[in-house]
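Technical appendix A lists one of the benchmark inputs used to test multi-chain prediction within the project. The record comprises two sequence entries:
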Amino acid sequence: MTSSLIALMILSLFLGCGCWLFFLWAVRKGEFDDIERPKHRMLDDDDVPPGQDRAD
Amino acid sequence: MKPAATPCFHCGAQIPAGVLIEERAGDAALCFCCQGCHGAYLMISGAGLDDFYRRRDWQETGLAPEIFQGRFHDSHLSRFVYPAQEASAIDIIIGGIRCASCVWLNEKIIARIPGVLEARVNYATGRARVRFDPAEVAPAAIFERIARIGYAPRPYTETAAREGARREQKDLLYRFGTAFFLTMQLMAYSFALYAGYFQGIDPEMKNYLQLFSLLVTTPVVFYSGWPFLAGAWRGIANRSPNMELLIAIGALSSYSYSVYATFAGGEVYFETAAMIVTLILAGRLLENAAKRRASGGIERLLGLCSGQAQRFAGDMLETVDSLELRPGDLILVSPGERFPVDGRITEGSTDVDESAATGEAVPLVRCAGDSVIAGSCNLTGAVRVACEREAADSFIARVARLVEEAQSRRAPIQGLADRVSAYFVPAVLALSLATFCWQYFSGGEFGPCLMSALAVVVIACPCALGLATPTAILAGTGAAASGGVIFRGGDVLEQLSRVTLAVFDKTGTLTWGRPELVEVRPAAGTDRRRLLVLAASIESGSLHPIAKAIRDYAARNGIAYPTGTGLQGMAGGGVTGRVADEPVALGSVSFLEDLGVIGIPDTIESPDGGMVVCVARGGSYCGTLLLKDRMRDDAPGLVSYFNRAGIRTLLLSGDRQVSAEKAAAWAGIGTGIGGLSPAGKAAQVDLRRLSGETVLMVGDGINDAPALSAADVGCAVAGGTDIAIETSDLVLVKPDLERLAGAHRMARRTMTLVRQNLVWAFLYNTIGIPLAMAGKLTPIYAAAAMALSSLCVVGNSLRLMRIRRD
């Protein structure tokens, strides 16, 4: 009982560490440098330059 | 004729009668106020970017009227290009970005240039990173493209200071992220321990849980909490107990108590230590994000001076960096360019817009022998200028230094929580020591006595204290922002609530900053309409604000006028030309007298500091036009609010003393002081601060920038220059002065709330102190007191969000 609980706790700690490393990576890559623009970028259409058809 | 009902499709301005331009788009007719707007529309829609009109946000203020109109040279720009992923890249600051739509438009427009591989615009900083193929496109072409759609591009170089600020922000993010993840882990263990406290728990399991808690809390306290520990140490070294010392004592005491309890047996309070650190880091992160946009004001100021100049080398012109100009060099400044250095005109004459330097909206005529100020804009004619100072010593550079000095001189304000901590920390430490002594000398053992002493510190240093100020300020600034007022940080709210003197700038703040025609006085034998036709015709080709005011007035009154011929702007304040083959002159009284005009009455005088323009036809006087910079209607309302709130008012102006006094009297302001330079305004503000006043400065121009940063609270009005906005602590995003009154009310309300919060926080935790001193503090009381005080504080702060905006 106790040993399995401890194993689970260690497992959860590793999971948390994984998330934490992912976060560190994201900060390093500059994901948080601009937190305003991406939410607007999502709404942008891939509009078509003039002279081209939307079909292609 | 009435003005057209629909506003201009491009700029939204009311379209004056008679100048409507229509364009058919599908089945709808679009109306434009001028060819410029029509042209802009054609370009944007021609590029397939019609979406701009749907997504732009009229709530935001537009581009400042004086956009940078420099020319771009590859030789100058190539210095800023650096290699990036098998191509070249350049960082560009795009001036004039106000909303997400601007960002979108710039990204798309830049990306459409052939040879550009990628363009990303950062919304927060207004900075673009453009990756391009140097074989296909030159940087100057990119800059020109951006300038053509009306934004002001400038190459960007990262200075050491900015680099440092960015690294600090990342560092904070690392610390917060670490604290956040570890605290989440910790809470899981803590809940198991809570449950164990009520339902019973296997002692071995309890000890494991405590060990795991210790494992995750240690980095939170010593890595994430390091800024507080360092700050607390500085507080001790300076003998001034501060907020950080309180946080550090709170975190360290509960941490060390828990470490002791882990090994000696007992209940642990690791979550208290971790929560204090995590929540306060979150508050700092939010505050930093607001402050970051404020930095860089000085660099923008220097950016006003064009980076390059056309220097004469013999008869040839060469393009040089303005930093290379030396006193005595001769340069050519074309219309639309800004003067790169302070100098003296040697040849030619022109109208110069000195609003950047002096705040005065009306351009001045400058001819050979007159001096010109760096950063002011050459409007009408090409002139040769002899440099008198180096660029590093120019007027704008001096203003930048003034701003920098004022900012560094301003002492950081000591927050309410800091001041409370100064008394509270020593008191708690004394009580803790007393507890230890009392228990130990009345026969207690060392271990339990130390536990009781530490418990006093733990219970007395609540998270709620750390939360009291940040949550109230967050709610207050949030509510203010939705009402159109942006606070640059929480200390501004506190300062604003204590303001005792409000100082106003005149031009552009209390007035609209542009003249309007207010009265037409025809001479005997000329009718009103005829006079206006003459004036509008003769002024039909000029960019001068007076000319614009006259034309606007004529258009508003539905007066059609022919275009004058042979128009010539004359140095000395006037225009001559021919209207329907008759010689016509328009200008100041002295200008017409010099031309030998007859019949000018002696009694022409300007009302209330306005301007007088006379018109003559065929050598005889035929009337006078009176122009005035109109006052903002909302100014007296704001001043009377300040009067009721017991705040004194003062007006500082670069204008003449007489007009300063008149404007002050009109708005109800106590005193008006005129004839002040930017440094003079800052000196006046400093003088008031030295005599013990807390000064609020309201301004809009570059000439106000030193005063704005010298004041305790600087407030910039929307539509002002970027520089004014960036050197201020408080920004009104809509040109409505009444909002400042709302901001002041909000500031006072927020500070009341902070005080309430502090009282609550202390009250709850002070009840715990006697229990802790008696050694009777059970974990359940401790947890309840901490949770309750935090809830009270957060709930109380949220009340600010519910206040109805009026």
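The two ends of chain A are 63 Å apart (CA to CA). Helices of chain A lie at 2-29, 37-41. Comparable benchmark entries are summarised in Table A2.
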